[in-house]
């Protein structure tokens, strides 16, 4: 039984990944409006029936895309230096480095989601997931600073988390790294300086 199931499961996983990759590619190339179940199936080279075996609806597909992007871009590896840091201030420095290396890879997807979210409920749901996850990370950082006694007044955990979250805006990342041609290392260094000057004692 094992020798039969394993290839089937592996093939199923490959199909699922191909569908999610196709959805991401369509979004980055043409926006969320291009993501129909038919277009995704065609891009992935599978039948609509095969697509519906994995995702019951477009909503399910785009919700799953959130985890797929984090996995394929290896969010866990990028944030590991943040959460493995010896103290909160060092973690804040590492957070700036994470944003510099990770967020430029997501600009196309993020811009498409932000553009479509007011008219496309599935895009809005995807974007809400992304931004809620950002805020969870920012609150964790703010709580750590507060716990270490390094959170500067007048910041509270809530307001510091909100401001850190706002500074994750793709306007900042794209404006400096893409439009102003800042190297990622320069962006990380200067953003870390802003973080320290703003939030830490």
In short:
The chain is mainly alpha-helical.
Q: Can you tell me about this structure?
A:
By secondary structure, this protein is mostly helical. The protein folds into two domains: 2-58, Arc Repressor Mutant, subunit A; 73-199, Orthogonal Bundle (Tetracycline Repressor, domain 2), CATH 1.10.357. Helices cover 78% and strands 0% of the residues. It has eleven helices and no strands. Helix 2 packs across helix 3 (48-54). The longest helix has 29 residues, at 2-30. The N and C termini lie far apart (62 Å). Residues 1-7 have low confidence and may be disordered.
Shape: elongated
Task: Please compute the radius of gyration using only Cα atoms.
Answer: 20 Å
Poorly predicted runs: 1-7
Strand content: under 5%
The helical percent reads over 70%
Q: Count structural domains.
A: 2
Q: What is the arithmetic mean of pLDDT?
A: 95
What distance separates the N and C termini? 62 Å
CATH topology (level 3) name of the largest domain: Tetracycline Repressor, domain 2
Going by CATH, the architecture of the largest domain would be Orthogonal Bundle
Throw out a few tags for this protein.
11 helices, 201 residues, 78% helix, elongated, mainly alpha, Tetracycline Repressor, domain 2
